[in-house]
Every structure is written in C-alpha cells, then in structure tokens.
Design brief:
By secondary structure, this protein is of the alpha/beta class. The chain has a domain of about 150 residues: Rossmann fold. Helix content is about 45%, strand content about 10%. Keywords: Disulfide bond, Ion transport, Metal-binding, Periplasm, Signal, Transport, Zinc, Zinc transport.
C-alpha cells in the first residue's frame, strides 16, 4: 500500500516538488523566528502585538498569579532555556527570575524593561498613606525623574536613588515605550522580519494613542475623588490620568497587614473621605471588608495583571479599560 501511494505522488513531479518547497519554506520560517519569552501578562500582550504574524511569545507567569512570589514550573524553566529573547520588568518585580536568567547562555538576549527601555519611572512610595499633592502630573516627565511628583509628604531629596516602582506597564506612555523598544530589539535579533516588527509597532502605537485619549475623557469626572487600593500597584495609571489615591492597605503584598496597619488605613478612609476601597483578584479580599467596616466607603476590584483577559493587544486595552471602568463605577 505505501508503494502505491509513493507511485501516485511521484507520478506528479511538479506537485511533489511544490509540496516539498512549501514544507521547506514553512520550516525555514519557524526556525528563523526567535523564541520570545515574556514574564507577565500585560507585557506579554504588548509583545504579542509586536510579534503578530511572526512568532507567538511564551508567557511565564499565568494571569491569575502574582509575580511578587511566583515559583517557576519545570515547563516554564524549559521555555526559558529554549528562549532567544527574554523580556521581563526587572528584579524589583520578578525577583524569582534573577537566578534562572543568570544561568542562561550569553546568546540569550535579556530585555530588562526598567533598565533598558527608557521608561517613565517613579520611586516606590513609602508607607501606605499618601497625601494628594502632585497627583495631577502626568507621564510627560522624562524617564527616571525621581526627584519630584513623589506623591507623599517626605522630602524629594530622600528619593533621588529610591527603588523604582515596577508596575510600569499601567501607563499608556510606558506601553508605547515598551512597544518601541521591543520592536527594535527583535528587529536586531531577527533582521529577516524587521519590516513586520516595524509595521506591528506602528499599528500598536496608533491603538495605544486612541486608547489613551478614550480613557482620559472617561476618567476626567472622577479625578478628584479619593480612594484606597489594596497594594501600591497603580501609581503610573494614577499619575498619567491625574487621579487622587489616598493610600494602600498593604505595602508588601506578600505579607498580610497587621492590626496597627489596618487601624491606620481605617483612619485614612475616614479622614480622606475615601469613596472606595479596592481589592485585587490575586489576593484575599476579606481584609477590605475589615477596612471599610463602619464607614461609608464602597468596595470595588482593580486587577493590575488582567487575569482573565484574552492575550494580545486586545487584552492590554481591556486591562486599562477595566481599571477605568472600576474606578468610574465605584467613585461616581
């Protein structure tokens, strides 16, 4: 039976050669496209937009998990070891990646966004209670401008060398810079597909501009309304749109806040007349009920990672739209 099929195929040499050529072309394309591994979902969504039609990047941390205390599974370690390009925020967020990345060969291109992508950066806010001065400043400040717009009452000079807040993807301006930087890196690593990366970059930048304009108009009515977040993950979003955060329940999301901390936040809710206290799907929300007990504050949910959203540019856009929607609904 196999011999009969072979005679039938070889009896059409033109078709046989065409199939072989197509197979070789497809195989060549697969081999030419580098394996790209991305640490967290929002950045993976942006990178997926840049690599569309060329390669599908691998996501390490699932959307429902927190990168603050993640542990790699064997399959994720294998993906890292097979990567040509690895894109992560930096040790400030994904500390679990420091040792695995150090063990990769020199041929692997490591993109540390906080260091490499010329992002707008703000220092981590000390404590979890902030005043509202400076909240109206946006992302037009130059990257690494840590000496002002710090969002609390400590002197600015104390933060000249403070650790940067790593939640940089929640600013549309930083999303634009991530897309631009990643497209440049991939074009250098994979010049055969440089034109595709460039076209995808331009398309992504146009989408982000449109999203930014939409959200600015949507959030304008609630800019002055104070609110409390679960942990300090939203500084870039807050500053970009001039919002008025009053504090966070926990400074370190990997540790539960103590009784004193809870009492401080309860006082802050009352003193600031915070309209809403937000929980997150990655952490237990029960603490939020304790914080608002006996107050007029409402509760809402903010998700900085987009746990259940689709992958790709649509997922990133939905992430920011959902943040805006949750804020508007709870603060209006």
């Amino acid at each position: 039976m196999p011999a009969i099929r072979q005679r039938k195929l070889t009896s059409h040499p033109g078709l046989f050669l065409a199939v072989l050529s197509l197979f070789a072309l497809l195989l060549g394309n697969v081999q030419a496209a580098p394996q790209v591994v991305v640490s967290i979902k929002p950045v993976h969504d942006l990178v997926t937009g840049v690599t569309e039609g060329v390669t599908a990047p691998v996501l390490l941390v699932p959307g429902g998990a927190s990168p603050h205390d993640y542990a790699l599974r064997p399959s994720e370690m294998r993906a890292l070891q097979q990567a040509r390009v690895v894109i992560w925020t930096g040790p400030e967020l994904e500390n679990f990646l420091v040792r695995p990345l150090a063990g990769l060969g020199s041929e692997v291109q490591r993109v540390t966004l906080l260091k490499d992508a010329d992002l707008v950066q703000h220092p981590v806010r000390e404590g979890g209670i902030w005043d509202s001065h400076g909240h109206g400043h946006g992302d037009h400040n130059h990257a690494h401008s840590h000496s002002h717009n710090h969002g609390h009452s400590h002197a600015a000079h104390n933060h000249a060398h403070a650790e940067p807040d790593a939640h940089v993807w929640l600013s549309p301006e930083n999303a634009r810079r991530i897309v631009t930087h990643v497209a440049g890196v991939l074009a250098a690593v994979d010049p055969d597909n440089a034109a595709a990366y460039g076209a995808n970059r331009d398309r992504m930048l146009a989408r982000l501009d449109q999203l930014d304009e939409e959200l600015r108009a949507r959030l304008a009515p609630v800019r002055e309304a104070p609110f409390i977040v679960f942990h300090d993950a939203y500084q870039y979003f807050e500053r970009h749109y001039g919002l008025t955060p009053a504090g966070s329940i926990t400074v370190d999301p990997s540790r539960a806040p103590g009784a004193r901390r809870i009492q401080e936040i309860r006082q802050r809710v009352s003193q600031s007349e915070a309209l809403c206290v937000f929980s997150e799907p990655q952490f237990r929300p029960a603490i939020v009920a304790t914080v608002i007990e006996g107050t007029q504050a409402r509760t809402g949910v903010l998700d900085p990672l987009g746990a259940d959203l689709p992958s790709g540019p649509e997922g990133y856009e939905a992430l920011l739209r959902n943040l805006a929607q949750s804020l508007v609904e709870c603060l209006s």
